[in-house]
Amino acid sequence: MAEYQNHTGIAPSVIELRGVSKIFRTASRSDRAVLEGVDLTLHQGEIVAMLGKSGSGKSTLLRIMAGLVGADRGEVRFRGSRLSGTAEGIAMVFQSFALFPWLTVQQNVELGLEAQGVHKAERVRRAEAAIDMIGLSGFNGALPRELSGGMRQRVGIARALVTEPDLLLMDEAFSALDVLTGETLRDEMLDLWESGRANIKSILIVSHNIEEAVMMADRIVILSSDPGRIRAEVRVPFARPRNRDSAQVRALIDEVYMLMTSPAVRELRVPALAPAQQIGYRLPDADISQMEAILDMLCESPFFGRADLPHLADEASLTDDDLLPACEALQLLGLVAIERGDITATELGRTYYETEPGERKVLFGKQLLAHVALAAHIRHELEAAEDGEVGEEQVLRELEAFLKPEEAERVLTVAIGWGRYGEVYEYSYNSGMLTLPREEPAEAAGAAGSPNS
């Protein structure tokens, strides 16, 4: 899509955010910033991708831009006027498709026009044109349950495009699809954009996929976490379509990986038995078997302990959604170091790799207590309890002083899984109680009474 240039040489803005902040009140009635001081302008004729780890406020920021959520501080200006509530000219595509299952494809696509009060005949004509443009001609009368995931997302996109928005917001729009379907739909969206047929002025894509951002965007914005702030912007100077295997594109992907992982070096320095205020650290959603598989791959041929993160992702056939949280967890536990987009097994990581499965659990548990404040806190509370038990509701209440309830529950679930694997504590899904490992009290009593202790 050709970018209009005004007399200053800068394309006119579509939407502007100035000093945008969003705050929520925790269970302890203290305030916590989700977003703080965000300044962002999207210009006519550009695609912007937004990256950031879980908890960076990406989706919240997107909903503020859509007018679905209000900012607590700062302002949003759309087409030069202050945005208050939803506005015609802004459309959104959701990860979950968000279709009405009882409506046909045609009816789902017409919904946005109906809300705008467009006459029936005009709704039908424009919806049919949008359905044809997105490649679903002939499926107008189908229900969502009769469509594949990729086709359902096409309906969601057609529903957004039919309103001919100035600004299209895409919230992880391709992440629920298989890789091939997602890439196909992404390429078709770029074709529509370049052709100008969709009449969109600007697109903002929220993504977890670094390669997707580099392949699609003119500019990449990276958010930090707790609170969400723009910490880096990367301009993508290559014309579309882009060759993902070219040296220049691969170098830019490496640069974005570096920017995405470099803040973790600072954020993950959690001291042993960290103070209570650090128990609210957002533990990454990392599966232990996946963490160990990545460490094993890193320590073996062809990497022998050091790898470029994009290369490791390709070799492991993992998406950034899976790779980055697992790498963050490995770094948190002191098993790897990440710097400038490269991951290196530490001496402890190499020891872990060479250790037998049973002994790995012991080492995992030791590192967990030393570096994960929440796990250390739970263990301390269990040791202090007369009956050696602590209810998960108690821990959740403590976490909700720092996190939203659903995020507190997610973080506790991760901590429980890691603690059970490392045999730091046990958990009963029936009672919701955390307990000390059963064999430990007897072993401790025996050790205390031993003449050699």
Structural class: alpha/beta
Q: Approximately how much helix is present in the residues? A: 40-55%
CATH architecture descriptor of the largest domain: 3-Layer(aba) Sandwich
Mean pLDDT: 86
Number of strand elements? 16
**Count of distinct structural domains:** 2
Strand order in the sheet with the most strands: 6-7-8-3-9-10
- Dominant shape: globular
CATH homologous superfamily title of the largest domain: P-loop containing nucleotide triphosphate hydrolases
What does the oligomeric state look like here? single chain
Strand content: 15-25%
> How would a crystallographer describe the biggest sheet?
6 strands, mixed
Number of helices: 16
Output the CATH class name of the largest domain. Answer: Alpha Beta
Q: In whole angstroms, how far apart are the ends?
A: 76 Å
Low-pLDDT segments, ≥5 res: 4-8, 264-277, 441-453
What's the Cα radius of gyration? 25 Å
The CATH topology annotation of the largest domain reads as: Rossmann fold
Describe what you observe in this structure.
The chain is 43% helix and 19% strand. It has 453 residues and is an alpha/beta fold. The protein folds into two domains: 13-259, 3-Layer(aba) Sandwich (Rossmann fold), CATH 3.40.50; 288-435, Orthogonal Bundle (Arc Repressor Mutant, subunit A). The strands form four sheets. A six-stranded mixed sheet has the order 6-7-8-3-9-10, with helices on both faces. The protein has a four-stranded antiparallel sheet with strand order 2-1-4-5, with helices on one face. Strand 1 and strand 2 (31-43) form a beta hairpin. It is globular, with a radius of gyration of 25 Å. The N and C termini lie far apart (76 Å). The model is unreliable at 4-8, 264-277 and 441-453 (pLDDT under 50).
